[in-house]
Specification:
Elements: H1 4-12, H2 16-38, H3 41-57, H4 68-102, H5 114-129, H6 133-144, H7 149-156, H8 160-189
Helix pairs in contact: 1-2, 2-3, 2-4, 3-4, 5-8, 6-8, 7-8
Length: about 190
């Protein structure tokens, strides 16, 4: 049986085999965990690679860790959220310039048309990108992964009440964003904007 703490200690001592063993031991779990947060395979892989590169580069400064798996999950969570936050900032800058190309759908057939349903899903997807990284994570875990508030609290190291409040704020923000997107589409379709 592999002793996680011994592997971590080996990593601290500069043993490449320990680094490789840790990588192989946790990669799939880290990927699955990271993908649930980011919803992007390449972003998840890049963040895992960045994390192990930083671990190796800073091996002499690593502290003792009782639970390497939990440490790596928390580290990966921080890296992914930082990447998502950076992407959100960029998307917010470009949103007003590009929104019309992604939001075109036919309101007359919206109740009957599959095309309109897909457009609404796309609008919701875009609206989700405008939430904070933490709100996106909570929405992802709650509504896409089906975790309850207590489970989300354990995953994110937040209190259940905080998770509930973040979820409530995220849903409220989504409603406001979706209404704004609908108004923008209406103004565009009537050539008032």
């Amino acid at each position: 049986m592999i002793n996680e703490r011994e592997l971590w200690s080996g990593l601290q001592d500069g043993d490449e085999k320990s680094l490789t063993a840790i990588y192989e031991l946790y990669y799939q779990h880290l990927f699955n965990f990271g993908f649930r947060i980011s919803l992007e395979r390449e972003l998840t892989k890049d963040c895992i690679h960045e994390m192990f590169t930083k671990l190796w580069k800073n091996k002499e400064n690593l502290s003792e860790v009782l639970y390497p798996k939990a440490y790596l999950m928390k580290y990966l969570n921080r890296l992914i959220l930082a990447q998502i936050k950076s992407k959100i900032k960029e998307q917010k800058k470009n949103f007003l310039y590009n929104h019309h190309a992604d939001l075109i759908f036919d309101y007359e057939n919206s109740l009957l048309s599959e095309e309109a349903l897909n457009a609404q899903k796309k609008s919701l997807s875009q609206a989700l990108t405008l939430l904070s990284p933490r709100q996106q994570q909570i929405i992802q875990l709650r509504f896409y992964e089906g975790f309850d508030y207590k489970e989300i609290a354990k995953i994110t190291a937040l209190k259940p009440k905080t998770v509930y409040n973040l979820s409530h704020e995220a849903i409220k923000s989504l409603r406001e964003i979706m209404i704004s997107l609908a108004i923008l589409h209406f103004l565009e379709s009537t050539h008032l904007f």
